[in-house]
Amino acid sequence: xxxxxxAIISFSILPVLALALPLVGAVLAGIAGEARAxxxxxxxxxxxxxxxxxVILILARVFTSGSVYFNLDxxxxxxxxxxNLQVDAIGAFFAFFAAxxxxxxxxxxxxxxxxxxxxxxFFVFMLLTESATLGIFMVQDFFSLYFFFxxxxxxxxxxxxxxxxxxxxxxxxxxxCMTIVGGLALLxxxxxxxxxxxxxxxxxxxxSSWLTGSFKVLTLVCLIAGFGVKAGMVPLHIWLPxxxxxAPSPASALLSGVMIKAGAYGILRTILTFxxxxxxxxxEEHAVLLVGGSGTAASAAEGASHAAxxxxxxxRMLGFAMLWIGVxxxxxxxxxxxxxxxxxxxxxxxxxxxxGYILFGIGCLGYxxxxxxxxxxxxxxxxxxxxxxxxxxxxAAGSILFSAHELDMFRLGGLWKRMPLTTIFWCxxxxxxxxxxxxxxxxxxxxxxxxxxxxxxxALHAGLATAGWVKAAEIVFIITSGGTIAYITKMTYxxxxxxxxxxxxxxxxxxxxxxxxxxxxxxxxAAGVLxxxxxxxxxxxxxxxxxxxxxxxxDPHGVEHLAHTSIFIWHNLKEVLVPLVIGIGVFVLGxxxxxFRAHRRGPNIFxxxxxxxxxVDYWYVRTxxxxxxxxxxxxxxxxxxxxxxxxxxxxxxxxVVHLVRDIIYPALTEIPFNYVKDTTIKxxxxxxxxxxxxxxxxxxxxAVGALVIAVSLTIFLIMRLL
Amino acid sequence: MPEGATKSVxxxxxxxxxxxxxxxxxxxxxxxxxxxxxxxxxGSAATFGVVISLLPGILDGxxxxxxxxxxxxxxxxxxxxxxxxxxxxxxxxFLWMLVTLYSIGYxxxxxxxxxxxxxxxxxxxIGCAFSSNMFTYFIFYELMxxxxxxxxxxxxxxxxxxxxxxxxxxxxxxxxxxxxxxxAQYFWGGxxxxxxxxxxxxxxxxSKAALIAIFLTYLAGFGVKAAIMPLHGWVPxxxxxAPSPASALLSGVILKAGAFGIIRVVFYVFGVELIxxxxxHVVIAVMACITIIVASIFALTQDNLKRRLAYSSIAQVSYIxxxxxxxxxxxxxxxxxxxxxxxLMKGCLFLCAGVVLVKTGIKNISxxxxxxxxxxxxMLCFTVCALAMMGTPPSVGFxxxxxxxxxxxxxxxxxxxxxxxxxxxxxAAYFLPIVYISFFRWEGEEEEGHRPKLHFGKEINRTxxxxxxxxxxxxxxxxxxxxxxxxxxxxxxxxxxxxYGGSISGYKYEDSDADGAVDFDEPxxxxxxxxxxxxxxxxxxxxTDAEGRFEFTNLEPGTYDVEEVLGRGISSEASTVIKxxxxxxxxxxxxxxxxxxxx
Lengths: 722, 599
Prior knowledge:
The complex is a heterodimer. Chain A is mainly α. Helices cover 76% and strands 2% of the residues of chain A.
């Protein structure tokens, strides 16, 4: 059983070295500064390269001998602490591709940053962000995850705002707002998880109510929304299309290649908390089983499968929700990518769409439960694929911006002659994202397709009501794959192959091939695309399956099956035909005037724009501005309220006077009222003259006080009555 | 003299030492201004040194006692350093030392008066922290009110005078109210004004109405200094009017003196059980929540930097009150620890605001464009503290938020988490624009290529920069190495353990007839060693008494294993372990299943 294998953890200094190295690199690069720019750039490349080596060592260690840990013993309170590092197979997998991407991006940035300002700041924060990001994948509890997640989010702010143009500033502001709100949602979710699961570890306590209790919708919404903001999940994706084009290209490659995966990683971990099987219902039996060893393993498995069936419905529901979130994300991202003209903006929407694929796979994992090996396999494969091809595309876009100073695809053209190597790398990556056989996207999309087909079969088999919806998801999946082919072909065609329009011909003329550092970065990732596409068997059996294997509760046969899935068979190859036809069709429909040098008649689908109020972005901005304005308006509204309260107080005082003068006083005594009045009025007048300025000064405080007391009393009464 | 306390003159020394600076100032008046300033700093450093000399003893659980005077029979003015008092004394002496250093560069007119009253105020506050009973606390608290007045009106502008006047009105009214509370406690508490571990026993027998009245009177009295809404009116006026070091002390320490009074009242006068019976924790929780949210909203609408910080202080001090109101282990821990945490963060923020004012003359946030380029180190420290205020890890702010969050879960009221998160969001909304405007905007940004350069190095006088940097670094360090001896956790945890700690107890029998159950005639085992373990580590060891009973006390809530130690007839086969004993806050758990032994 895999359950026992997970328990093996050994001490290793590697994780902390992998986190410390970028930090040291950042400090050294900061010291080197602009005065020794070359040394600084070399330091950055060396630091990220050495980190990559360390991460590969960790990966090898984890895959051969189980998880490794290193206790930093930071932020320890009582028996709870944050930031003790522990790397398991899934974490090592994520850290691995993150480190590759960082290495490629730092090579690219070596030359790219020559055109930017404040280079030292960029490099320092790039390395700091690497450390934070690797940290995310090296911990085993939500609090530590939150710690690194927030660190990454806040540090990346400096990368987004880097150019400090008006555009970058507004993008960065949107980014930081989303980060903070998402972070707080996440923290709230973690607290709720702590309340239900009894621990913040990814593995809930056995006797907790997390697994067996009622479905914790609120907690899951908080957690998934918190992670989903970073993951670019629709409808929380709005920061992404602004932030990516605003950031320098190496940073966009990192944002898109790694950072949004960190969000997906969080969602994956959230779903996997359901897969931690309770070994048995009773704690005593648990103790016996632990002591008993292998003899009782069979009975443990039996107990587990029994308990798992009770959980299955909850997990399936959650998986179904994730699956549809994924489908909606991929579809909307694809539609929006289709109508952009800015290359980086297209790529940003494409990232949203591709994140949909990843979430879709995670959803399939939940939906299939113990049989979900194909779902997690597809997701993991797509994660590493997307890191490679989207990283390569963003870096190539950076090269284009560097050479042509232009990112509008309709103003470019014919670049293949002037930037041949960049074109080749771009095309490899483009074929990858399109899912053409022998390129990497094909493998992961095939796996994901298998997963959804399996889900549908399972649903039919079990007679579930959601079967039809799963079929619908599959159809949207295929349409989206077609759309992906369309927008990538469009972008490639207009940027590289179509002759430049006459009025832009002049400025394309001076374009030259990008410097070799940039080519090296892009090429490294393009090579990754090719490798992943040509040797899926190797990757599946050596990287994906061992990572999936460590997920407790997955059927080992399913994982075995995943490791030996045949990719290049006719059954899979023919699946590409439908999307290909759709894609080419849509592309031709939009681009025919340019393809055939004809005059456009009818609408241009590439210039199709929806009204702004249909987008969620519009409403978020309005809500945010509105609520902020409300707080300021509240101050203005408060003025009449204050007047009213003061009036009430005065009238009350007046009422008391009337009461005393007209009712109480006559009832008590026979002395005429005026006599008393005349004698007291002097004293009163005197006091009034002295006190009035003071009273004026304090009337604001008095009004606030009265209001707060009234509100407190109301709330107190409500709480008492409930 | 209280039981178990060591008689020591060190508490007295800590109170007296600042007076020596005062004498120095008077003696050196108008001559050697520089020497005089530095001697003042030395005085406050010496006070801190004296306070810290008690640390090892306090960590060992000692208390120190010194009697000042006897007023009437049973009512005396005396100093007693218990762990909680020491905790407050330590942070206050530390902050005072740093702020005195800062003031050397900041204060440029009427230094004698300022430093003299700083020294006085420190003496009184240490008296507050080290007082052994409510009477002594009250005396020092009132003296401190007058001692701090000259600090607030130091600038002597119209605004400062008005603010000072308002402060006096509020504080004197509060003092009068507090006096009534004191008298009422003396009357109903059987003449006992001391601080007792589980509250004053005699109070529990008083009528409920009287107790509620006493508590609310105390709350009103201390609430003015602790700036609980609606008693906060003086705070947003006094902070911008006072010079920055004085604002840092107001926010960092003087507001806390009020909160500290409420802590004393809740823990040591009434005791948590009585508060729970009276339902008073709900009252303070509601008031604290309203204060947190409303003050944060007010802060958002301020343009004056120090006014914004002042409203933020009002909100943050209520975190302490909210932690108390949770009546749970982590809540109490988080609340009391926030006292120091907030002092570090807000102290640093106010000192930064002072640097901004001195270097650029800017008071309003909207004018702060490009300030980060002129004083990068200061604004970097400001950024660190602003992020900490939002509760970003790794910082003290996160530790507070974490503990308060898990405290509200412990109390079974996740609604407080919503308040905490809303407050964190508002914190972000009013702090981050300051950071943004000072680093990412600059004068003349519309013109191409006109970018200011960072001026590291000579940004401001060293004596002003050093305290700022020390505080910002501590915000991180205290948040990372939380459990270091001498840091808040090591001092607060024993206090909370005494108050909310639970116990586990059970019996050890011999099962003569080996039927697995205990019968009346079966003998109890005496002197068997029992261990309490957590995560495999032995925490406590005890032996059973004549009835076979054992008990572990002062336990944090958590999961424990109880295990017999081998030896004397207990072999490895017969030894029993009770695993996974779950203990809640202030729960006294009796193990149902006794340890039995089969002969």
